[in-house]
Design brief:
This protein is of the alpha+beta class. It has nine helices and 21 strands. Strand 11 and strand 12 form a beta hairpin. Helix 2 runs parallel beside helix 4. It is globular. Belongs to the ABC transporter superfamily.
């Protein structure tokens, strides 16, 4: 098994500071996902770990060995890119064996590794085909197999599923999850902008923004206790509802927005407890309930339905609370019409509250 450590890493492109004083420790056998929007630095960080970019300052360790200035081929990594990057003139078997032959691996060992990778990725019937004869999902499996045959301890994935359609992405997500379970001693670092991939695959997620890690935690913590407003808004589909207002601290803390007052006695505040002032109150659409369930929850109110979006298994309802957009889900079989009034409720303990100025969780 191998761990990966990034210490005080800086990367500049001329006068542009891309990554600044970045620190990250990835555990042995862990599946870590680097998640963020385009331009946040996630692929750049992965390329630094791979040795494809020379860093400006800092150090990179793989299995406690300083590899900061080693060539990619000497770092003990296997990398899967967004583009399949397969040799079109070679068969699948040829693509899988090419790097091993150049490295002087014996024929019997090459055969054994190809058979193992093909079995893990279910591509045994494809070994004699060429890339042009494969579907997108099959090509990506071959690209993963090419990394897999190297028999390394660290795999790096750079948005490997982004070129595939939704159905294929879902299928290959499961395959990658199974692959990590079967290769239990293997560390995987996976870059994506897709939060579904991150939440379903990761042991831990590092959410990045402007070259910095905003939060590093397991998916449940990222979802339920986002460290700041950016993370809260980035994770979740549909995204979290934000209501701007004021935090009042008397005998019990209360969030107030216009005529709405939400008691926060069950909310777990961070740090030294609540402080009065302007805040943003966040509640996820899936934490808002209607009808009989709403009647048993600490906060209840009535809203008017503005827009209805049927989505099959459930329906997304758009309404407003004191002028702020409020989205919530109802069962797909529940009849809902624009203009009708609905009783909703939620537990403020499941909310996330952020300071209006710093946007940090309070």
């Amino acid at each position: 098994m191998a761990s990966v450590s990034v210490k005080n890493l800086d990367l500049n492109f001329g006068d542009v500071k891309v990554l600044q004083n970045l620190n990250l420790d990835i555990r042995q056998g862990e599946f870590l996902v680097l998640l963020g929007s385009s331009g946040c630095g996630k692929s750049t960080l992965l390329n630094c770990i791979a040795g494809l970019l020379d860093i400006t300052d800092g150090q990179i360790f793989i299995n406690d060995r300083n590899v900061t200035w080693e060539q990619p081929k000497d770092r003990g990594i296997g990398m899967v890119f967004q583009s399949y990057a397969l040799y079109p003139q070679m068969t699948v078997e040829g693509n899988l064996s090419f790097g091993l032959k150049n490295a002087g691996v014996p024929k019997e060992e090459i055969k054994k590794r190809i058979e193992r990778a093909a079995a893990l990725l279910h591509i045994e019937p494809l070994l004699k085909r060429k890339p042009a004869q494969l579907s997108g999902g099959q090509r990506q499996r071959v690209a993963i197999g090419r990394a897999l045959v190297r028999d390394v301890d660290v795999f790096l994935f750079d948005e490997p599923l982004s070129n595939l359609d939704a159905k294929l992405r879902a299928e290959l997500r499961v395959e990658i999850k199974r692959l990590h379970q079967q290769l239990e001693n293997t560390t995987m670092i996976y870059v994506t902008h897709d939060q579904i991939e991150a939440m379903t695959l990761a042991d831990r997620i590092a959410i990045m923004r402007a070259g910095a890690i905003q939060q590093l935690a397991d998916p449940a913590t990222i979802y339920n206790r986002p460290v700041n407003k950016y993370v809260a808004g980035f994770i979740g589909s549909p995204s979290i509802n934000f209501i701007d207002g004021t935090l009042e601290v008397n005998s019990d803390p209360v969030f107030r927005a216009g005529e709405t007052a939400i008691e926060l006695s069950g909310y777990a505040f961070s740090g030294n407890g609540p402080k009065p002032g302007p805040v943003s109150f966040g509640i996820r659409p899936e934490h808002i309930f209607t009808d009989k369930v709403a009647a048993d929850l600490p906060f209840q109110c009535e809203v008017e339905v503005e827009v209805v979006e049927p989505m099959g298994a459930d329906t997304l309802v758009w309404s407003r609370l004191d002028g702020h957009e409020l989205r919530f889900r109802v069962d797909g079989q529940t009849p809902v019409k624009e203009g009708e009034r609905m009783k909703i409720g939620f537990d403020p303990a499941r909310a996330s509250i952020f300071d209006a100025e710093t946007e940090m969780r309070v």
